[in-house]
Amino acid sequence: MLYLIPLFLILLIPIIADIWVKYNYRKYLKVDNAQGITGSEVAQMILKKNGIENVRVNQASGFLSDNYSHGSGNKTVNLSEGVYSAKSVASVAIAAHECGHALQDRDGYGFMRMRSSLVPVVMFANKLSYVLVILGAIFPVFGFGWLGVLIISATLLFELVTLPVEFNASKRALQELEALEIVSDAEMSGVRSMLRSAALTYVAAVAASAIQLLRLLMVLKRRR
Ligand SMILES: [Zn+2]
């Protein structure tokens, strides 16, 4: 039974983090900010304040699908429906966070560039993992374990580099909101709590991958 514990952790840690961030999001989505400003207005204000004119603010479909995109010369802050036009503490926090990524992009923030260059590696590793599962099922006699170690390591590296990118975007978001003086002190603590729980999901991903890697390494060691 003991050997099942890592498996449970790998599955449970990200699920718990996901529940926690959604719980916090729903909580602060119900709290309107006193100024009555929407997520898209906050984003426009932050971009304008920093003289960023080449980034558009778009409405995206989906739940919590907010992101900053800078591919193929098209730079956009994409805010989900619940953020773009909502006047909540949650929408302010998320909009400011995505603008934090726009600021990183402008500054050529090292970890962001490193993360972008790792994207194709992780996509390849992902595809390879599917092939590996199929090959493993067809040829169970061959050990594909070390290839698995390589794939999980690539994913883990990507998730590790994502951490400073996400933490830094939230730090910038808080600085921008403080400078703009559009949220009260009480609302600011809500913003902080929102951003902290969002950061937790990235930490959870790292923890899950690290346990997965350790588990595989232990299995391989036992086989030898
Ligand atoms: Zn982010």
Description of the molecule:
- This protein has 224 residues and is mainly alpha-helical.
- It is 73% helix and 7% strand.
- The chain has a three-stranded mixed β-sheet.
- A hairpin with a 5-residue loop joins β2 and β3.
- α5 packs antiparallel against α6 (145-180).
- The longest helix is centred in the C-terminal third of the chain and has 39 residues, at 185-223.
- The model has no long low-confidence stretch (mean pLDDT 90).
- The structure holds zinc ion (ZN).
Could you say which structural class the secondary elements and strand pairing correspond to?
Answer: mainly alpha
> Count of DSSP E strands?
3
N→C terminal distance = 22 Å
Can you write the helix and strand succession as a string? Answer: HHEEEHHHHH
User: Overall mean pLDDT score?
Assistant: 90
Major sheet: arrangement of strands: 1-3-2
Measured by DSSP, the beta-strand proportion falls in 5-15%
